[in-house]
Each structure stands twice: as C-alpha cells, then as structure tokens.
Amino acid sequence: MALNFKVFETKDIAARYAADVVRKQFNSDSTSVVGVHLEAEQTSFFDELLDDVKKNPVNFSQIHILDFDGKEDYYTELGVPAKQVLKTDVGSDVEAFIKEKVNTDKKKNKLMLDVVTLTEDSRTGLDYDQAIHPAREVIVLVTGKEKAKAVSQLYQEPANGSVESAKLKQHRMVTVVLDNEAAQGLPEDVRSYFSIQFS
Asked: Which keywords, in A-to-Z order, does the entry hold (predicted)?
C-alpha cells in the first residue's frame, strides 16, 4: 500500500495537524479506541490536543486510550475517565487486550487509530503485527532533522525489507505527518508534492 505523506512548515504545525485528526476521530466515533505511542518524539502534540478539545468538546464517556507511554494523568486531564486509560505494554497483542478490557455500547471494540512515531533508527517501538496492523488508521508523526534519515529509510525500503518501519507499507491507511526538517529525508519532488498549508 502507498504511504500518504503530509509535510508541514514547522513541528508545531505538524503536531497540530496530528492532534486535529485524533480529536476528529473522537468526535466522529464516541466509542473510539485510540492507541498512542509517541515516547520517541519531542512534540507539542499533547498540548495541541488539549487545546483542540477545549475548543471542540468531546464526549469521552466511552472513548478508550491504549496508553503506551504512561501518560494517564494527561488523558484524565483531557477528559478520558481513568478506567478507560489503559496502560498498554509495547509488546501487547492489542486485539486480545481490547477484547478483554474494552466494553462499549456499540460492542465494536476495534482499534480505530494508532498514533506513533519513528526513532532515529526508523523503528516504531511497537510490534507491527500485534499493535499496528489491527488499527483501522495509523498516523506517524515524525519531526526534527535528526529523524530525516529514518524518514528516508521508511520511504526507500520495501515493505518486506530489513528496516522495521517499512512494514507500515503493508497497512491500508497510513499517513506520515512530517515537519520540513524530517521531510528532508524524502526526495525533493516528493517533498514538494506533499507540502501542505495547515493552520
């Protein structure tokens, strides 16, 4: 599958865009299960999401968060009930975990969205088959010039290659959200094609 890239001028705008996608997911499906693993990313994503939710209130009564980063206090401040912030081990089989821990009115109980990043050596930090593949949609937020090489590896490596992040190409719906610095890892024509304005 093709990866969809979005390139933004600054890391804060990239983070704002990613946060907006997450907030819209919350609003469009009040029983969403969303996984977040951004430990390896220096980002304003969490501040942006808090601001977005203040401007566009969300009914969190049945939303569940798979918290891979140990940020329960943040999610409860956001408005998610503490019992629905599920501390999740990076090695977890998320489908089995969700089946055991999540119970909503709609009984869909599927991982709707994963928000992840890349390390400098182009890893997501999650097992693709167990924690990423089950998600309906994946957002990969990657910023900073130190991540340009990781982006280059993601772009160039085949899906079955040796670079861990290249497995993301097996997924049907992945958006890679970059700032201009991380996007230096893309060929110039690709970078300019995917550069967009967002405020």
From this structure: Isomerase
pLDDT digits (tens, 9 = 90+) for 48-99: 999 999 999 999 999 999 999 999 999 999 999 999 999 999 888 999 999 9
**Whole-angstrom distance, CA of residue 169 vs CA of residue 147:** 18
Cβ 67 vs Cβ 143: under 8 Å: no
**What are the beta bridge partners of residue 114?**
35, 138
The SS3 call for residue 110 is coil
- Burial class of 80 by CB neighbour count within 10 A (0 to 12, 13 to 18, 19+): buried
For the chain, give percent helix, strand, coil, nearest 5.
40, 20, 40
User: How many CA atoms are closer than 13 Å to the CA of 10, on its beta-carbon side?
Assistant: 6
User: Contact 164/127 with Cβ under 8 angstroms?
Assistant: no
Cα(first)–Cα(last) distance of the chain, in Å?
29
Structural domain boundaries in the chain: 4-194
Is pTM, for the whole model, over 0.85? yes
Gap between the Cα atoms of 91 and 179, Å rounded:
28
